[in-house]
Amino acid sequence: MIQRPLLRHVQAIRHLPPSYATKTTPIIQVATQRIPAIPLHHRLLSQRYYSATAEPATSTSSETPSTGSATSEAQEQEDPVKKELDAKNREIIDLKDRYLRSVADFRNLQDRTKRDIQSARDFAIQKFAADLIESVDNLDRALGTVPASKLAPQNSDPDTPPESKEYNKDLANLYDGLKMTETILMGTLKKHGMERFDPSEGEGEMFNPNLHEATFQTKVDGKEDGKVFMTQQKGFLLNGRVLRAAKVGVVKNS
Length: 254
Description:
single chain, three-stranded mixed β-sheet, 6 strands
């Protein structure tokens, strides 16, 4: 630090007029002889150190990294919060999906349970009804064995004695009793969902493989192909389900 002012003093003396320089030559020589030589790299370092332009550049370069580091630190502080928020959003979506699936499964379970309960109620007597079919068939056969001619007096002549007109009265009474029993029995079975059907009644139904069982086919004049013209065994339904298919004869003219 002391060498710097001395150099400035020497340079100022060199630029003085000759008259002043001659008078002070001994002083300058003495001063120059006492000043040691300054190495070149020391001078370069000192010039670089006292440069006016290098100082702002250094300060700017030193400020830029600090700003960048502050931004990166802010991003590092914000990233965990954003990641946690995204994770929470995904968790909410997953939980909502699970909740909706659980609700749907529970409603499906309720519907299946209702159907199972209703099915159990409707077809609880299925086995009993199947066993009862034979009794109903026998009752129907018994009624079918009595010809209509035996149920009314054969001779309607007013001159005929009353004894001859009433010879089949007991049979008619028995038939009427069986018919009433059958009617009451079928009404009771119908209340519990069991019904009997005869596909040959009226003009005859078209053959339905879901309800009918064809035992034979034959030509019948005046009947359409596929029509049921005779019933060998009547069918039964239990709450819409086929308990026994009807055995029928089907028309086949072609």
